[in-house]
Design brief:
Layout: H1 2-17, H2 20-32, H3 46-57, H4 63-71, H5 74-77, H6 83-90, H7 92-100, H8 112-124, H9 128-142, H10 150-166, H11 172-188
Length: 194
Amino acid sequence: MGNLHAFADLAVLSVAERSLLIRHAAAFAEHSHAGTVRTGSLEPYFEHSREVAGLVALVDEREEVIAAAYLHDVPEDVPGVTIGGLAARFGTSVARLVDQVTNPSRPEDGSRARRKAIDLAHRCKASRAGQNITLADVVSNMNRIENLPPAFARIYLEEKRRVVVAMTRGHPLLRAGAAAALDVAARRLSLSVS
């Protein structure tokens, strides 16, 4: 997976050089996630956004798709940032894609299993581009699964396995990459993915 990430970095840099929209989305995501770190590490959270955008850029160079990849976690993680606000700032195409990958479930929807079922049903309706963002998100998150508490990591791994299986419209490279990332994560956790 290391080579895939190196290519992803080059892909997003190449496209971003030509796109003001992507540069603005990256800057907004970096500002929105400023001061936050990935779970269990000191890595700035924005590195996840950059990694997801880079992986998406490997299979889709459209600027609105890469911009949405940068912004994919902002509405869920940053109070006050809404899909409508993203539409006003980045356009409806970007906002629609972010909406496709934003979990609609709320704590009042019930158990974690129930909420994740709602979220998965929502993501299954996503366009190919939306599913590519979801798959890239899985790849990035699986690369750091060992930072999670072991009991939660087992649950999370199984949730992401279901997501990858359901993303049937995603690009074959990202589907294969996500499946491989799940397998590697399972081995690192000494688990088996069925």
